[in-house]
C-alpha cells in the first residue's frame, strides 16, 4: 500500500456508499453552478435588470399542460423543461414540487417541452408525457418521470446521462401501467404525429421566447433570473418564491 494512500480507501478500497455519495455531491455542485451561471446570462453582472416580457400567446397554448391552475390567472409560471436535464430534475426536487403543493389554486403553473440534443432520452421522455396526456394523465407521467429520474435518465455511473433507449422505453411503459393508462394505446401514441407535433410546437415557442437551455422559467411573461447572492438550491427556492409572492401581492 502506498504511504500516501487516502485513509478512506485503506482496507479494500472505497465502499459503494462512499462512491455514490461522492458522485451525488459532485453532480449537485456542477448542476447548481451551471444553473446559476446560465440563468445569470453567463455572469454578465446585469441580473438585476428586468427581463423583457414574452407575449402570453407564445408561452402558453390552449393545449399546454398545467400542473396547477388558478381561477383568476393573476400569476402564471411557465417552465420550458427537458426531462433528462439534471438541472431540471434539481429544480423539480427543490422548487417545483413545493410550488405545486403550496400554491395550488393560487397560481397557474404551465410546463412546456424543450428537449436538448445533448440528452439522448429527453425527447423519448417528452413523448411519454405527451402520450399520457392524450389519456388525461399528463401530470401523473410528469411526476413518474422525475420521481424515477435516476432509474431511466442516468447511466450506471450515476454521473452521466443514459442513452439506453430500450431500458427507458420499458420503464416508461411500466410507469404507464402504474398510473392506469391503456398501455397498448400509450405504445401506439408515443411516436405518433400528434405527439411529435406537440413537442415540436413547444420547442418552436421556446425558441421564440429566447430559451437557450433548461430549465427556463417565466413569471408573468418575464424570465426568472436568480439574484447574485443565490448560491444554493435553498436560496434559489427562496429567491424564486419571493418573486412569486411579489407578483401575487400586486
TrEMBL record:
UniProt key word Oxidoreductase: yes
Thioredoxin domain span: 45-242
Transmembrane spans: 12-38
Pfam families: Thioredoxin_4 (PF13462)
Molecular function via GO: oxidoreductase activity
Keywords assigned by UniProt, alphabetized: Disulfide bond, Membrane, Oxidoreductase, Redox-active center, Signal, Transmembrane, Transmembrane helix
InterPro entries linked: Thioredoxin-like_fold, Thioredoxin-like_sf, Thioredoxin_domain
Family, as annotated: Belongs to the thioredoxin family. DsbA subfamily.
Name recorded for this polypeptide: Thioredoxin domain-containing protein
Amino acid at each position: 500500500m502506498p504511504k500516501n494512500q487516502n485513509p478512506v480507501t485503506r482496507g479494500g478500497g472505497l465502499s459503494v456508499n462512499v462512491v455514490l455519495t461522492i458522485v451525488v455531491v459532485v453532480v449537485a455542485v456542477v448542476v447548481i453552478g451551471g444553473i446559476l451561471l446560465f440563468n445569470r446570462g453567463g455572469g454578465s453582472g446585469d441580473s438585476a435588470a428586468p427581463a423583457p416580457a414574452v407575449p402570453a400567446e407564445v408561452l402558453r397554448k390552449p393545449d399546454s399542460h398545467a400542473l396547477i391552475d388558478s381561477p383568476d390567472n393573476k400569476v402564471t409560471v411557465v417552465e420550458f423543461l427537458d426531462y433528462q436535464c439534471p438541472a431540471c430534475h434539481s429544480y423539480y426536487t427543490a422548487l417545483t414540487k413545493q410550488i405545486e403543493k403550496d400554491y395550488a389554486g393560487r397560481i397557474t403553473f404551465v410546463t412546456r417541452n424543450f428537449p436538448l440534443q445533448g440528452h439522448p432520452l429527453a425527447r423519448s421522455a417528452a413523448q411519454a408525457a405527451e402520450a399520457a396526456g392524450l389519456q388525461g394523465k399528463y401530470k401523473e407521467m410528469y411526476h413518474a418521470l422525475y420521481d424515477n429520474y435516476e432509474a431511466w435518465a442516468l447511466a450506471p455511473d450515476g454521473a452521466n446521462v443514459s442513452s439506453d433507449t430500450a431500458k427507458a422505453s420499458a420503464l416508461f411503459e411500466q410507469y404507464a401501467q402504474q398510473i392506469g393508462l391503456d398501455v397498448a394505446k400509450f405504445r401506439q401514441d408515443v411516436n405518433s404525429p400528434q405527439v411529435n407535433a406537440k413537442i415540436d410546437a413547444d420547442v418552436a415557442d421556446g425558441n421564440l421566447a429566447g430559451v437557450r437551455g433548461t430549465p427556463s422559467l417565466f413569471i408573468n411573461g418575464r424570465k426568472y433570473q436568480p439574484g447574485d447572492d443565490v448560491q444554493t438550491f435553498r436560496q434559489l427556492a427562496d429567491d424564486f418564491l419571493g418573486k412569486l409572492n411579489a407578483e401575487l401581492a400586486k
